[in-house]
Amino acid sequence: MDNKLRKLPLGIQDFEDLRQNGYLYVDKTAYIYRLVTMGKPYFLGRPRRFGKSLLLSTLRDYFLGKKELFEGLAIAELEKDWTVYPVIYIDFNNESYTSISKLEAVLDDVLSIYEDVWGRKEKKTTFALRFKHIISRAREVSQQKVVVLIDEYDKPLVNTLEDEKLNDAMRDLLKGFYGVLKSNDANIRFVMLTGVTKFAKLGIFSDLNFLTDISLNKEYAAICGIAEEELVQNFEPEIQALGKENGMTFEAALAGMKKRYDGYHFARQSPDIYNPYSVLNTLLNRYFGYYWFETGTPTFLVNLIKRGDMDVREFSNDEVDISAQQIMDYRADMSNPIPIFYQSGYLTIKSYDTDYDEFKLGYPNEEVKYGFLNELITYLPASRPTTEFDVRKLCRDLVAGDIETMLLRLQTSFAAIPFDLENRTEKHYQTIFYLIFTMMGQFIKVEEHSSKGSSDAVVETKDAVYIFEFKLSENATAAQALLQIKAKNYAMRYQMSGKRIVKIGVQFDNNLRTLGEWIIED
Prior knowledge:
Oligomer: single chain
Distance between the termini: 56 Å
Shape: elongated
Number of strands: 15
């Protein structure tokens, strides 16, 4: 089949629209059948644009008994009854929540719609009591228990994380509203809330503790997103076209997608999950881009890094430890922002230690890694050498073997940092070098650098290996940096490569706040 005739479901979040208009669909209905037969109240946390809205839309059409939409899918062979239930669907996606009145307007609008269907009380009352009345009336009139589906339940809270007063107001309103679900259990057939963050310690989930959290359940690890076998099974013609457009074999195109968009894990034992938004954009445009990352600037995450004094160098080395108890928890004091980095999709599970019930987290793939670091160096003025700084120029210098120009470029860039910035510590400048050299890994081979006895950075080109050591401490010299490279024999592992090995010792001048002297030695 000509892949031009195949409609990719990019941006399609309505299941009925998708099925009636011939869009490709990665069949997740076996998961839905398991959900509705094995339990009743659920919470699912996934990053944005991972298919949560489409999942709830599919559940809505299932509970409305729209059997014809499911023909040819897994659930068609599993479900025999197709009972029709009253469904209350609440979507918090379409508002910015810059004020409490915005949340009130959303609640009033959706409740008014269902009051028109099931009836309303004459006297005005609270949102929670209106919600409770709708559920009771729907049960009474339909003679069936009610299905409640709430998409992005936490968006008003996530949007106001940096405004404590407004966040408290949002939380207080939603706490009472969501509490209706627990008190009306006898009238409810099924409940599912989706979101990014589980606000377990903010009072919300104290009233939602009856929900079964499947966010880390291995049976549902692939309920959103695209597993590799699903990618190949459903999109082979599009992957072939992507490869042809970029002069690549099918295997190379698939490998390119894997390193950029794969690598998410949502359970202790989880298959690799691809980001569906980036996959569909790549196949549609036939170009490898940073699609998911470009849909939103994570400024609040950058602020969490600043507030928590986090060392982002640990992210690249998969060294971020977090207990199983904490990974789905978010605390109001922001003392430990790591859970929200995981829940938002900027970190993912890399391994699990059964003895200590602890996860190690790291970047899921190159799109997230390089996209996030680029945002970090852009949005942290204290770590931005210049607004025109371009890591690609440094890469071109190295590929050309022009180390002197590269270092002069760095020297000029650092000299442009304003002198009135605070917290200009050794760790601060180490982080800047980490950001720069890690970002270079998009274009040329850069070894991961750490504090475990390796050099600060190793860059490998077609013809040469460049070993960098930076001395940032006061009174340190470039000669001492070069001596460390030799004393610790950093070059030994590259001696059989047949490439030119270049050692570069660099001294950072604390008074001038830029590179001071350097020594380059073959």
